[in-house]
Structure formats: structure tokens, C-alpha cells
Design brief:
The complex is a heterodimer.
Chain A lengths: L6 E10 L5 H24 L2 E6 L4 E7 L3 H9 L3 E2 L2 E11 L2 H7 L8
Antiparallel strand pairs in A: 1-3, 1-5, 2-3, 4-5
Helix pairs in contact in A: 1-2
Chain B lengths: L2 E3 L9 H14 L1 E7 L6 H13 L3 E8 L4 H11 L5 E5 L3 H9 L5 E3 L12 H9 L3 E5 H5 L3 H20 L4 E4 L11 H7 L7 H8 L1 H14 L3 E3 L2 E2 L9
Parallel strand pairs in B: 1-2, 2-3, 3-4, 4-5, 5-6, 6-7
Antiparallel strand pairs in B: 8-9
Helix pairs in contact in B: 1-2, 4-5, 8-9
Classes of the chains: A alpha+beta, B alpha/beta.
Chain lengths: 111, 243
């Protein structure tokens, strides 16, 4: 039996003047990953947007645990989301969604 | 771990902006922030900035950015300004200036503002000189964030080379934000993550954001304190006229 893929969940805080669409945040993270590490790096990351709350600007993304340093660097390098200036901060990283919701105080996750 | 940002652009004329930037730094987890000030800054301005930073629970550090055109100008600037600022950084715009800045013990930070690898002058000779003095190599995160495409490729390649040379010669590394607006500020751990792009591992990056800058500031504060004579020698008590 093959071993289950180990994943990491990242809680993110978006800083932007206006609220952004869910696809825009997913797109900006993937674009940053592609710019910095190319298509091979992006494919290794197995990136997926799990949750996004546009009102408060919180998001959760999932990635492969081996690609975590690359994903964190890509997220830190984001300066625009869509057509507006933005910054994305990593709040916490965890191995499961349950643990992540416990770690992030006043959890915004409804899982 | 207390994090320091030794390069935060704050307009000393726009106090509202200064307050916003310092509050943001505090929110992101920085305990100490160095603000570049003009060489002729008035004491009242520094006092006002210190008051603002205290409200945000930030330890304000005064910094001056020197951009001399020749080594002789650098020497005269250092003689004039070293004692007035807690951190002195030199923007090395030429090879002779980089060499002089690297060997001078009064210089804390060596900066290279150009994104072009040909206009960055930190090589083996400068690292050798810097290892004998107290100068550290500064990397501004904002420089990486504000470039893109081939410009960023060149910058990252140059940074990777400089960091490798610095490590091989035990030249300390300092990672600063270099931010001029709140959206260019990153959390200390996010800045450390960016170290991956220029060959700095997480532990070294965290050291470059906390321990190394703190040592620079503490060392200079001791030197500027009353009673300091030389390393290991300080005036404990002054004798009276009758003694």
C-alpha cells in the first residue's frame, strides 16, 4: 500500500484595500509559485485553496509538506492580487485542518 | 525571539504615516525598528519619532544612510556622523567605496541598492575586509518584492553569490524590510521564507532578522553610552575635585 501524501495547511491573512475574489487569490499564489519555481516546482507543490473568507480576508491553502518552503516564499513574494496592491501573511501552518483551526485564535474556519 | 527591522522608511515629516508604519511593524511582530534619518535631522524630530514608536511598543533605532561618491567623502561623513546615529549604513556605489566601508570599523551595514549584478560590489576582497571589521551585509526584502522578470533573476543571482561569499568569510548577514509602504512589510518568518530565494536557510535567516541586528544596535548603544572609553573599559565613578 502506498503511503498517504503528507500535506500542510496554511492559514493566510490578506491585506488589500478592496475585497478580492476567491479565484484571484488562488491565481496570485499559483502565479507567484510559477514565477519563482517554474512549472515543475508548482506541480510539486500540489497547491489548493481550501477556504476563503473575503469579508475578513482570511484564507486556507493546502500544499505538499515537501514544498512548504517554496509555497511560503511564493506567498511572501505576492505584492498584487488582481489589479491592486496587496500583501499576504502566513498566520499558522499545520498538518491537519483540525489542528490549524485550534491554532488560529478565534478561528475563522467552519470545518 | 525578538525581531529587528533595521531598514524601515518612515517620513519624518509625515507623522501620521510614521505612526501607521511603526504600528504595522509592531503588529507583524517586530520589537525594534531602525528608521533612516537625514544627516542633519533635528533632535526634536527624533524625540517625536521615539514618542510615536513607544505608543506602538517599538524600540526606535536611529540610522543614517551614507551614499558617498569617494572613500575620502565616506571618511569625513563617518567622522561627522558616527556618534549621532545608532546604526550607520553605507550605500556602496563604487568598488573603492565598498572597500573602504568594508574595512572601517565605524560602518555597521554594507548596502548595495542596484539590482544590476554589475553595479553591486561585494566580492571576495570586500568580504575579506569586512570579516576583520564589524560591518554586516544587508539584504532588503523590498528590493526583491519590487522587482520582477529578468531584473529579479539578476538580483537573486547576485544576492546568492554575495551571501555565499559572506558566509564563507564569516561576515554577518542582516535581512531588513526596506519597506516604504505598509504593503511591502512582511512578518519576520515570511522574510525568512524569502531567504530560500537567495540561498539562506531558515535558521540563518531568522538569525539575520533577530540576533545579528540586535547585536549591532546593542554594541553601538554601549559605545554611545556615558562613561564608555573603549571595549572593556568604562568609567564607573569620577573622582571629585578634592580627590
Amino acid at each position: 500500500m502506498t503511503r498517504q501524501v503528507r500535506r500542510r495547511y496554511l492559514a493566510l491573512k490578506l491585506e488589500c484595500d478592496r475585497s478580492v475574489q476567491q479565484y484571484a487569490i488562488a491565481d496570485s499564489i499559483l502565479s507567484a509559485l510559477l514565477r519563482l519555481f517554474g512549472e515543475v516546482g508548482a506541480s510539486q507543490a500540489a497547491l489548493r485553496l481550501i477556504h476563503y473568507d473575503g469579508k475578513v480576508g482570511y484564507a486556507v491553502v493546502r500544499c505538499s509538506h515537501t514544498a512548504l518552503p517554496m509555497v511560503k516564499a511564493a506567498i511572501a513574494s505576492i505584492t498584487r492580487i488582481g489589479d491592486q496592491p496587496a500583501a499576504v501573511h502566513v498566520l499558522r501552518v499545520s498538518g491537519t485542518l483540525k489542528a490549524l483551526s485550534k491554532k488560529v485564535a478565534g478561528s475563522f474556519l467552519s470545518v | 525571539m525578538k525581531f529587528c527591522d533595521l531598514h524601515l522608511y518612515v517620513s519624518s515629516g509625515d507623522l501620521e504615516n510614521a505612526e501607521r508604519m511603526l504600528a504595522k511593524s509592531s503588529e507583524l511582530g517586530y520589537a525594534r525598528v531602525a528608521v533612516p534619518l537625514p544627516p542633519n535631522v533635528k533632535e526634536e524630530v527624533v524625540h517625536t519619532l521615539r514618542q510615536i514608536s513607544q505608543r506602538s511598543d517599538i524600540d526606535l533605532v536611529t540610522r543614517v544612510d551614507l551614499a558617498p561618491k569617494s572613500p575620502s567623502v565616506l571618511l569625513s561623513d563617518l567622522g561627522r556622523l558616527r556618534r549621532r546615529f545608532e546604526v550607520v549604513s553605507v550605500l556602496c556605489g563604487s568598488k573603492p567605496v565598498a572597500g573602504q566601508a568594508a574595512k572601517d570599523r565605524r560602518v555597521d551595514l554594507l548596502c548595495f541598492s542596484s539590482v544590476s549584478p554589475r553595479r553591486r560590489f561585494f566580492g571576495l576582497a570586500e568580504a575579506e575586509l569586512a570579516s576583520g571589521s564589524s560591518a554586516a551585509l544587508e539584504v532588503d526584502v523590498a528590493q526583491i518584492l519590487s522587482t520582477s522578470g529578468s531584473e529579479r533573476v539578476g538580483l537573486l543571482a547576485a544576492l546568492r553569490k554575495e551571501v555565499a561569499i559572506a558566509n564563507s568569510h564569516d561576515v554577518p548577514l542582516v535581512i531588513s524590510s526596506g519597506a516604504s509602504n505598509p504593503l511591502l512589510l512582511r512578518k519576520p518568518h515570511d522574510c525568512a521564507s524569502l531567504g530560500l530565494l537567495f540561498g539562506v536557510d531558515s535558521s540563518l535567516a531568522l538569525k539575520a532578522l533577530s540576533e545579528t541586528p540586535a547585536q549591532i544596535v546593542d554594541r553601538n548603544r554601549v559605545k554611545q553610552s556615558r562613561g564608555y572609553v573603549s571595549p572593556g573599559v568604562r568609567i564607573v565613578r569620577e573622582g571629585g575635585k578634592d580627590d
